[in-house]
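Hey,

Quick one before I head out. I ran the complex with LARABZUK overnight. Inputs first:
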Amino acid sequence: MNILDKIVADKYKEVALKKGLIPVKQLESSVLFDRNTNSLANALRNSNTGIIAEHKRRSPSKAVINQKVSVQDVALEYQTAGACGMSVLTDGKYFGGSLDDLLLARATVQMPLLRKEFIIDEYQLLEAKAYGADVILLIAAVLSRDQIKSLSEFAKSLSLDVLLEVHNQEELEKSIMPSLDMLGVNNRSLKTFEVSTEISKSLSTQIPDDFVKVSESGISSIEAIQDLKEYGYKGFLIGENFMKTENPGTSAVEFIKILNQ
Ligand SMILES: O=C(O)c1ccccc1NCC(=O)[C@H](O)[C@H](O)COP(=O)(O)O
């Protein structure tokens, strides 16, 4: 059992518990539920930099990254820095996040917000909408093709963008379908936690042009982004590189400024 299997096993229990506590009707009555969403895929298509900056307090690979900063401060600074969107981890047990983090970010910024979560049930998509997300993540490693299809179609019916994440060719081949907006390649091995952008590069030619290509994890240099752009990537998901610094927002400002030069 790898870390993702463990996280997802816990997630099935968590979602079952939450369904008993907060009915769907309550989620649907949130003031944010009918809000017009903001497409991350479009923002990436129209951007020169393509940064999706993440709020990430801790992780299975790095334990504590940053517990001190406020999610609202980080959100505002990421937006001011010129990030295309923000990824907000909402898993509590492994990443120290929450849906309240998403809500606080939504109250602060207009840029597209990705609910970074281990989605296994439509209920979590209703939560995403109710707490102000614009985009959801689906992880091919933990979903069947049928689940990807039904979850992505349900997300589209809620006007949410869909980012589908793969780790290898097999996951990519089973996942391609029209209800996805963005295809993300995760550079982090779930077995060793090692990161290498080589996997983004090797899968790039197999991602059809209809999808916005996103490279995720382990990106820490301008050179890496310039290199990935050569392979057609338009989006770059960066968490730790910003969050490990005392001021993630300032780090993002400096990074994006150099990228723009
Ligand atoms: O970050 C981890 O350790 C991790 C472990 C197991 C499953 C998912 C994990 N991370 C989620 C992410 O996808 C990253 O937070 C995201 O791509 C940003 O990565 P990074 O820039 O390396 O923080």
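The longest helix spans residues 3-21.

Talk tomorrow,
K.
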